[in-house]
Amino acid sequence: MSEEEKKFLEIVDLKKGFGSGQTRQEVLRGMNFSVAKGEFCVLLGPSGSGKSTLLNIIGGIDNADSGYININGDKLEDMSEKKLTQYRRKHLGYVFQMYNLIGNLNVKENIEVGAYLSDNALDIDDLLHTLGLYEHRYKLPNQLSGGQQQRVSIGRAIVKNPDILLCDEPTGALDYNTSKEILKLIEEVNQKYGNTIIMVTHNEAIKNMADHVIKLRDGAVRHNDINTNKVSAEDLEW
Ligand SMILES: Nc1ncnc2c1ncn2[C@@H]1O[C@H](COP(=O)(O)OP(=O)(O)OP(=O)(O)O)[C@@H](O)[C@H]1O
């Protein structure tokens, strides 16, 4: 892997606070780390440690107060609004704890929404098979289980084949078995399409399936470890 690929995503001295005066809260206090291309990176940390704030800044939906993010050599802060919109559209996929599907569109149509404006979209039928949703493709979201709905939302995020897939507690609303199914799917997506994955989670066990584990505390990186002994999602237990 080249030096550029090792620093595919580079977070440099990132700072972010909210509020002003007495209610001012410094949430990110100078955060530094790099994520390599294709890596499955897990962000862990107690509630309030700034994980979602960081993900939103990487996702280009919030700004840092200082510091910067480089993605594949492009500095996010230097991007014009137009370039930033393009970047979000083409290079980023987002999976949330809540699925946010469009209720009157079926499974296939919900996924097609994510392909809109992409010039590099994956084949939808092939993706529906990978997601285990092919037989369900004409169902509406309210005819699906929570796990199936999360599969659709993962499909919508990856159909444009983004360089980076950001996942914020993707299994937070799911039971044990369904969570494992979703983690297996994310693992498969990472291996099959090679997207760099950054996943925020409270579940410590998930670190065992990651290539890279970053632990945040009080707005800074406390541990930054490469996992040389990773296990498959199938073998995770918690
Ligand atoms: N838009 C905002 N305005 C004011 N404060 C905010 C805003 N967004 C986040 N915060 C505060 O920043 C801190 C960090 O929030 P953040 O959601 O990033 O933490 P987290 O590590 O993701 O927590 P959790 O694990 O509970 O989701 C919290 O104290 C939160 O109240």
Automatic annotation (TrEMBL):
Q: Which GO terms describe its molecular function?
A: ATP binding; ATP hydrolysis activity; transmembrane transporter activity
Pull one GO CC term from this UniProt entry.
membrane protein complex
In terms of Gene3D superfamilies, this protein maps to:
P-loop containing nucleotide triphosphate hydrolases
User: What keywords sit in the KW lines?
Assistant: ATP-binding, Nucleotide-binding, Transport
Protein's UniProt name:
ABC transporter domain-containing protein
InterPro entries (alphabetical): AAA+_ATPase (IPR003593), ABC_transporter-like_ATP-bd (IPR003439), ABC_transporter-like_CS (IPR017871), MacB-like_ATP-bd (IPR017911), P-loop_NTPase (IPR027417)
This protein's superkingdom? Answer: Bacteria
Organism for this UniProt entry = Roseburia faecis
What Pfam families would the database entry show? ABC_tran
Read off the PROSITE patterns from this record: ABC_TRANSPORTER_1, ABC_TRANSPORTER_2
In what residue span(s) does the ABC transporter domain sit?
Answer: 9-235
Q: Which family does it belong to?
A: Belongs to the ABC transporter superfamily.
- Keyword Nucleotide-binding in the entry? The reply is yes
